[in-house]
UniProtKB/TrEMBL annotation, chain A:
Keyword Manganese recorded: no
Domain ABC transmembrane type-1: residue ranges: 67-262
Membrane-crossing residue ranges in chain numbering: 12-37, 71-91, 112-133, 139-158, 187-208, 243-262
Gene3D superfamilies: MetI-like
Source organism of this protein record: Thetidibacter halocola
Main location: membrane
Protein's name in the database: Spermidine/putrescine transport system permease protein PotC
Automatic annotation (TrEMBL), chain B:
Enzyme Commission number: 7.6.2.11
Name listed for the protein in its UniProt record: Spermidine/putrescine import ATP-binding protein PotA
Lineage of producing organism: Bacteria, Pseudomonadati, Pseudomonadota, Alphaproteobacteria, Rhodobacterales
The keyword Protease is assigned to this record: no
PANTHER family per UniProt: SPERMIDINE/PUTRESCINE IMPORT ATP-BINDING PROTEIN POTA (PTHR42781), SPERMIDINE_PUTRESCINE IMPORT ATP-BINDING PROTEIN POTA (PTHR42781:SF4)
All copies of domain ABC transporter, residue ranges: 7-241
One GO term describing the cellular component: ATP-binding cassette (ABC) transporter complex
Keywords: ATP-binding, Cell membrane, Membrane, Nucleotide-binding, Translocase, Transport
Known partners and oligomeric status: The complex is composed of two ATP-binding proteins (PotA), two transmembrane proteins (PotB and PotC) and a solute-binding protein (PotD).
Cited function: Part of the ABC transporter complex PotABCD involved in spermidine/putrescine import. Responsible for energy coupling to the transport system.
Catalysed reactions listed for this entry: ATP + H2O + polyamine-[polyamine-binding protein]Side 1 = ADP + phosphate + polyamineSide 2 + [polyamine-binding protein]Side 1
Family: Belongs to the ABC transporter superfamily. Spermidine/putrescine importer (TC 3.A.1.11.1) family.
Keyword Iron among UniProt keywords: no
Amino acid sequence: MAERRFSVAGLPGFATIALGVFVCLYLPIVTLVVYSFNGGPSIAVWQGFSLHWYTEAWGNRAVQDATLRSLIVAAWASAIATTLATMAALGTTRRAAFRGQTFIYVMINQPLMVPEIVTAVALLIFFASIKVATGYQGLGYLVAAHSAFCIPFAYLPIRARLEGMDMTLETAAADLYATPWQTFRHVTLPLLAPGIAAGAMLAFVISLDDVIITEFVKSGGQDTLPTYMLGQLRRAVTPEVNAISTALLALTVLLLTAFFLLTRKRN
Amino acid sequence: MTSQDAVTAQNVVKSFGQGKVAVRALDDVSLSIRKGEFFTLLGPSGCGKTTLLRLIAGFEMPSGGTILLDGQDVTTLPPNRRPVNTVFQSYALFPHLTVRENVGFALKMQGRDRAEVEDRTNRMLALVKMEELADRATAQLSGGQQQRVALARALAPQPKVLLLDEPLSALDLKLRKEMQVELKRLQKETGITFVFVTHDQEEALTMSDRIGVMSAGRLQQVATPREIYTAPINRFVAGFIGETNFLPVTKGADGARLGCGAEVTALGEGPVLTVRPEQVGVVATDQPGAIAATVDTLIYFGTDMHVHLRLSDGAALVARLPLPPGGDPGIAAGDGVGVAFAPGAARLIGD
């Protein structure tokens, strides 16, 4: 006789609730994607299939600029955040436990806990004074702000990977005449690479997606794709926004799939 | 300390933690390991044997004392600058490298030229009979094969001393026996000094030239397997290696006086007499010098039997006797018998 175990799936209403949740989660997105292929200018009335809004968006100079800016900021921010996060992860795991370790973890993950709007206002004021003092108006502010809030997203997968790596391997490398740098270069780094790649991808997606901090920090004419879309929505809403959203969604899904493949436990 | 010593430890102390919670893992250990020797550090877990090994390798720094390799003071040198390699209990093979790359790792780190790395790697792979699996990933290997790769990797740079940290403990019994023979062969062929750590007394007795028995952070006795077995220095060593009898004694007129009043001749000095069960004979009660005893129980195991005896003062004693042809022991529980120790087999030791 089969053992009867408790299972949440056996409770009454389980299937109904699960289905309802999935509908709530995905119906709006499906609608958005469907209407990006609408032939007419309405986001509510279907007027036949067309790629019109994709070509429209593709040819729009403002969209091109915003996309390029988004990618540049995300590339720099994820590179900087991943480098810093890797160093932080090495510093917090590749050593004996130390006093204040938990406090350090909390400090590194600060951007996950402080309300984003608070950080945004703080950065607005902080950067404003720097802008006045230096006169510099470039993308550096956005890159710096994005790097900062991307660090915990890059840090967590890298730390998880390091915690799963046996420190005896580094001891063995030292025993086999590797200097500390050679040990890092030939043992720690290659084994850590999937974690670093995963962290970088997550950071990239988080940066690409940011609205609040970007909206507060950007100077005039520095719209990223999300802030451009936000600006568009204040005026006439056309399926062009749907088309851009769908493209952004596709890119994000691609990167997150890669992230999950990299962090999946081997065997 | 002479130039004949591969490893010398002088008054080595190692404490972990600070203040009241500090633990002394090693308490004033001094030791010389000779060149070309198969030396075993033997003791129960927590006795400090692995800590001593890690100090020799350079993974830890001693809290006090000096460590010399080949006469050179290496106490503060990092592991990558010591001519010593280690076979780890977990093998610690690099999972992202092939068997060949693992074996060649140390040579590559030393900056040897490519031809030399390849040549030496091939010879090491041949030495441990792993040529055919040279291009496999290490995860695809069995435990025994990983063990061989770990050995080849540690031997490839021709260290002055090879340290082995319980390398056989993860293998099953049959494989362990094979690897014991294999290790002995490798040590003879390479002539490298082996320092082997184990808690398995049988392993230590069969493989070692000399054994250092450790307990509670101290080195109890350093001697050949034969000496350790036949002339243990104290109760711990006698009890840890093989089976033995302990009998309290007092100083008699001419020898040691047992609790039952009988006097026996024994070597050494101390309040405890130890004698191995196979050195205890069961004889006729009227034989000169025989000690009167009663048979408690007989326990058979194959070719031998254990006779549990009780002396007149209640002290327990075990004799190990071969079963006579025909299998009839000729004694039974409750019999009064005589007991005699083989000449020179009884020793007095410290408690």
